[in-house]
Amino acid sequence: MTAKTQSPPYRIGSADLETVLALVRAGTLAQAGERLGVDGSTVFRNLQRIERGLGQALFERTRSGYLPGELALNLSRHAERQESELEAARSLVQTRPDQVSGQVRITTTDTILHALVAPSLKALRARHPLLDFDLDVSNTPVNLGRRDADIAIRATREPPEHLVGRPLGPIRVALFAPRRSRLRSIEDAVGRGVAWVAPDDALPDHPSVLWRRRHFPKIAPAYRVSSILSAAECVALGLGVAVLPLFLAALRADLRQVGPEIEECVTQLWLLTHPESRHLRRVATVLQYFAQEIHLPSK
């Protein structure tokens, strides 16, 4: 009688980790394939092979996509470290010790981009001409876990726990009117029935929206906009008043502050990245530069 030979345990490889990571980040076969440079059917076959080898499912198939299980999430963390190490090694061999190169993906809002980030990019690239920048403008919550961006610059009171970074300073706000307005205070604007411009639908939890609803619940904005930058443009055109950050209004001669700063609306500007990205030379270089060069108006 011969003993039945037992097949060796499945040895997961680097390509397997890349497949799992792509599907964790993308959520669908098609989008994971785009990240890997293959079609969705190839991703499906590779996933089937990995799951057969491991003897268990890594993802739950749903109508909306693939939901990673605990093992898939753990494997994706190893894959992220592998990804970071490979990128660091490639950067090391492709450039001289005094050079920093590569693409840095930055996500922020249009307000922060135009007022704080963009003005400092020219000098940064002059210092490091081999750096390229992919600028994503969005008001959606920060999600660097999917690695759609390397750096996030956001206004928040509580940054996500899974990210690392530093505060760049408080974002102070006040009510602003067109330059030639004769309004003297917030109460004056309310009493005169001046039109308000606000991002109620796009940013319902914005501190300025919550503040206005709490203290002036009868005010309904005459103009609803999708961003704070759009609100500033509307105010400058004479459409009404809006709560705007001081750092944005300071750049414009067509706006006038009405009343004191609104302490209740103060938030922090955060410079954030993923823990696995902060050690990459290109990312660390940009983080350090922004930390030194982005300044907010003080009291």
Give the proportion of residues in helices: 40-55%
Taking the sheet with the most strands, its summary is: 5 strands, mixed
Q: For the terminal residues, how far apart are their CA atoms?
A: 88 Å
What's the Cα radius of gyration?
25 Å
Strand order of the largest sheet: 4-3-5-12-6
Low-confidence stretches: none
- Class by alpha and beta content: alpha/beta
- The overall average pLDDT, rounded, is 88
Shape descriptor reads elongated
How many individual helices? 10
How many E-type strands? 12
**What is the H/E order?**
HHHEEHEHEEEEHEHEHEHEEH
Provide the β-strand percentage band. Answer: 15-25%
Oligomer: single chain
Question: How would you summarize what this structure contains?
Answer:
The chain is an alpha/beta fold.
Task: Label this structure with key terms.
single chain, 299 residues, alpha/beta, five-stranded mixed β-sheet, three-stranded antiparallel β-sheet, 10 helices, 40% helix, 20% strand, elongated
